[in-house]
Amino acid sequence: MDMLYKVFIEPFVFMGEAPDLLIQTLWEGLVSGVLYALIALGFVLIFKASGVFNFAQGIMVVFAALILVGLYEKGVPAFLALILAALAMLVLAMVVERVVLRPLVNQPDIILFMATFGLTYFLIGFGELIFGGNPREMITEQLFLPQGTTEIGAFGGSIRLQHLDIAAAIIASIMIGLLAVFFSKTRIGRALRAVADSHKAALSVGISLNQIWVIVWFAAGIVALVAGIMWGARSGVSFSLQIIALKALPVLILGGFTSIPGAIIGGLIVGVGEKLGEFYWGPLVGGGVETWLAYVIALLFLLYRPQGLFGEKIIERI
């Protein structure tokens, strides 16, 4: 009985008694959720263009951030390093299209998935060879990302807002909005949906798979670069950052692999849920709720709504 009280009643009593802590937790979850949604959109881009989950998106976040920091450490000015990192993502997109994707046109989805799996470990090895395995600090001040904290009195307590978190939420929201317009309002966005439905049908109406794949992988690379900057500024730049990036998988399961609104809602559910779980229920299980709660939520969705909140239910007749 005492355990039931601690699980189902006490956390909510605490929320009512300390609303400032609840708002602080919700804010931190909101920021994390928006950044998860940004990473998830990189996965959505690739999935819309090929129908395959791009396992390499997580390491692309790390790789883009390492290129930026590595160039700056070599003496390249920060904003020039940012431009060169974006160009490196374009080169990566062209190489992936030419070496990996083009030979695998019309192959089963599992083949393309395994190709992205192999690309992941190639980028890990190549990144460690070029940059080493030591963690690095993101060049936040050089990129003029705001520092410091604003403290707001509320509900008899105070709420601390990190300026970096505010900037991260704004920048990620702008990127999400731009990608939503790109998908829904542009000719390339419509071509992406056609390619995802059928490679053969897209080719038959004159859509160039090669160009579409370069564009979409470059767009995913830019998303990875922005996500790498934001997460790197919060957590440092290291290869362990790809574990955070793979939190986008539960986000995609919740929202649906082809839905931009789903990525946003899924990101917010995961971000807010794991922060609330860690703060209010973490002490009951010894902490660490943030590392596994998102995957438990995703498992429940797979059991009861495998297409996600906004995904399409596909019925195949035999």
TrEMBL record:
It is a multi-pass membrane protein. GO terms for molecular function: transmembrane transporter activity. GO terms for biological process: amino acid transport. Keywords: Amino-acid transport, Cell membrane, Membrane, Transmembrane, Transmembrane helix, Transport. One of its GO terms (cellular component) is plasma membrane. The chain crosses the membrane at residues 21-46, 52-72, 79-98, 110-131, 164-183, 212-232, 244-273, 279-304. Its main location: membrane. Pfam families: BPD_transp_2. CDD domains: TM_PBP1_LivH_like. It is found in: Cell membrane. InterPro entries: ABC_transp_permease, BCAA_transport_permease. Belongs to the binding-protein-dependent transport system permease family. LivHM subfamily. This is Branched-chain amino acid ABC-type transport system, permease component.
